[in-house]
Design a protein that fits this description.
The protein is an alpha+beta fold. It has two domains: 5-152, Schlafen, AAA domain (Methyltransferase, Cobalt-precorrin-4 Transmethylase, Domain 2), CATH 3.30.950.30; 153-185. The protein is built from four helices and ten strands; from the N terminus they run H-E-H-E-E-E-H-E-E-E-E-E-E-H. It has helices at 5-21, 43-55, 85-95, 154-184, and strands at 32-35, 59-63, 65-66, 71-72, 96-97, 102-109, 112-119, 128-129, 142-145, 148-151. Strands 1-2-7-6 form a four-stranded mixed sheet. It has a two-stranded antiparallel ribbon with strand order 3-4. A two-stranded antiparallel sheet has the order 5-8. Strand 3 and strand 4 form a beta hairpin. The longest helix is centred in the last third of the chain and has 31 residues, at 154-184. The model has no long low-confidence stretch (mean pLDDT 88).
Length: 185
């Protein structure tokens, strides 16, 4: 599983900051989360972070980075390289709705293999937790804030609801304009 070219430069920039500054991430902690390893036992934790990224502007879960102190350790085994994306999607779809758009891959950095899960911003927000499992709570909406994933706060929820209302109003306006134009022509 190779790194997508659009991910490679971005990930390299983030990882080089890890080396130099013990991960300041240049303010990008809103779109980056680090984990030391991958395990299906922790999928609810990853799902929470992935939903939070989707509800904000997308992001990367980078695997192979120790938290305290922040250090690139690489993937310690082949589990991540052997995962079946369909299995992850199936499990994510059981706990989150709507479905996430995500991809995964590996990137080499300083002779160490790192994994990543990239989640795009959801086109239909909010992504909501359908059931409680692990650290997921039924009906919760998770959101990515700088350096943390948590349940959404009022201001961000209002913003998402306003975006939904604006999009719906624009659809009605477009339909009205199309009908009006067809009557004139």
């Amino acid at each position: 599983m190779a790194c997508h070219s659009i991910d490679e430069n971005w990930l390299s920039a983030i990882l080089s900051q890890l080396d130099e500054n013990s991960c300041t991430c240049d303010g990008r902690t809103q779109s980056v989360e680090f984990k030391e390893s991958f395990s299906f036992a922790n999928l609810s934790e990853y799902a929470r972070t992935m939903a939070a990224f989707a509800n904000n502007s997308g992001g990367y879960l980078i695997l192979g980075v120790r938290d305290s102190p922040r250090e690139i350790v690489g993937l310690l085994n082949e589990r991540f390289l052997q995962i079946d994306p369909a299995r992850i999607s199936t499990e994510l779809n059981q706990v989150l709705d709507p479905a996430l758009i995500w991809r995964h891959g590996t990137v080499d950095h300083d002779h160490k293999s790192l994994g990543y899960l990239h989640v795009t911003e959801a086109s239909r927000k909010p992504v909501v937790c359908k059931r409680s499992e692990g650290n997921l709570k039924e009906s919760a909406i998770y959101y990515r804030y700088p350096g943390e994933t948590r349940e959404i706060r009022f201001a961000e929820l209002v913003s998402i609801l306003e975006q939904i209302r604006t999009a719906e109003n624009n659809k009605w306006l477009f339909a009205y304009l199309v009908v009006s134009a067809s009557r004139k022509g």
